[in-house]
Amino acid sequence: MAHDLDRREERWTQRLPGAFAMVAVTLALLWSLEIVDTAMNGRLDGYGIRPRSLSGLEGIPFAPFLHAGFGHLLSNSLVFAVLGVIAYASVTLARFVGVIVITGLSSGLGAWLFGQPHTIVIGASGVIFGLLGFLLFRGLAERSPGAITISIMMLLVYGGTISGILPGVPYISWQSHLFGFIGGAGAAFLLRPSPQRHRYRWN
């Protein structure tokens, strides 16, 4: 007689309410900060990443929460809402948090190491590219039908967006995009679930 001792994960539909709540709370925080920043004449933006400045390292945890105006925030909000819901509903909470932490650090360090001196890097786009990299490579890492389906969907819908990891657009930190994307792809392999183990009892 065989007994599966592993707990069955929640279905993605059961995680959807939590995904929508997470996105709503995150966006409420980002928009509230931008309203405060506007009232302070952009003073909060000074807490962003300053490339190759020792004090600029302090901006890595703050940069994703800061934006250069409401237009910048709106464009990031729309993509984050979609990718955030899909990523949150696709994996466990621990893995989702792990992806956010890894991509936040990788995009921030990439911007700090390779960004233009005497600039300030802000915005959630590094983490957004990290989520895209995670969802694209999760199918390859896990090789499950669901993960592969999502990866193909991401490639079809957001494949053209990947060009954002390349230099060429002024005032855009392609470095944070590139290293966020790399961090997300790495997280797909680093945080993939271990194969289920089964214990067998013979009568």
> What portion of residues belong to β-strands?
under 5%
User: Which spans of ≥5 residues are poorly predicted at pLDDT below 50?
Assistant: 1-8, 197-203
Distance between the termini: 7 Å
Count of DSSP E strands?
Answer: 2
- How are the strands ordered across the major sheet? 1-2
Please state the structural category.
mainly alpha
Written account of the structure:
This protein has a two-stranded antiparallel ribbon. The protein is globular. With 203 residues, it is mainly alpha-helical. Helix 4 (125-142) runs parallel beside helix 6. 59% of the residues lie in helices and 2% in strands.
Short description:
This protein has helices spanning 12-39, 70-90, 93-114, 125-142, 145-158, 174-190, and strands at 2-3, 199-200. The protein is mainly alpha-helical and 203 residues long.
List keywords for this structure.
203 residues; mainly alpha; 6 helices; 2 strands; disordered N terminus
